[in-house]
Amino acid sequence: MAGQTNVLTNGAKLIGEAFIFPGSSLIVEGRVGTGLLHTLAAGVAGAVLGPLGTLLVVANSYSKSVNDQSLWELATSTAGQTGGPGAQTGGPGAQTGGPGAQTGGPGAESGRATPDAAPRGKPA
Question: Pairing relation of β-strands 108-109 and 112-113?
């Protein structure tokens, strides 16, 4: 039942953003300042870029309301996640590619040798 409530709430937020005014979902949540900034930004973006500018601000406001992240934050947080299911990014020894993918020589992930692998260029 909680999932249905979430869907209905998000639907109401989307309708408010699209048909009442941009930033309304944030204002309803109590984030009045952020909501009013989105309303103002939608007016400026609409004047400069036309309907596309307004649409981008509406989408950003909705994203901020639902995910607590702006579109830019969502784009940058997912930009480094490539390689399909199971891929890991960042950190020493990170894997890239699909599940179980390795790069580098034997016993190495992303070119970093494991302690039991022989050093490169020297006989084992």
Answer: antiparallel
Q: What are phi and psi of 63, to 5 degrees?
A: -65, -40
Segment (H or E) for 77 = helix 71-79
Segments of the chain assigned E as strands = 108-109, 112-113
Q: What is the pLDDT of residues 88-114, one digit of tens each?
A: 555 555 555 555 555 555 554 555 555
* Extents of the domains making up the chain: 7-77
108 forms bridges with which residues in the sheet?
A: 113
Question: Closest Cα partner for 113 from 92, 86, 87, 88?
Answer: 92
pTM over 0.85: no
Chain Cα centroid distance, residue 66: 12
Query: How many other C-beta atoms can be found within 10 angstroms of the C-beta atom of residue 38?
Result: 28
Burial label for 58, CB within 10 Å (0-12, 13-18, 19+), is buried
Residue with tokens 């309708």: 15
Cα-based distances in Å from 16 to 1, 7, 27, 35, 72: 23, 14, 10, 12, 22
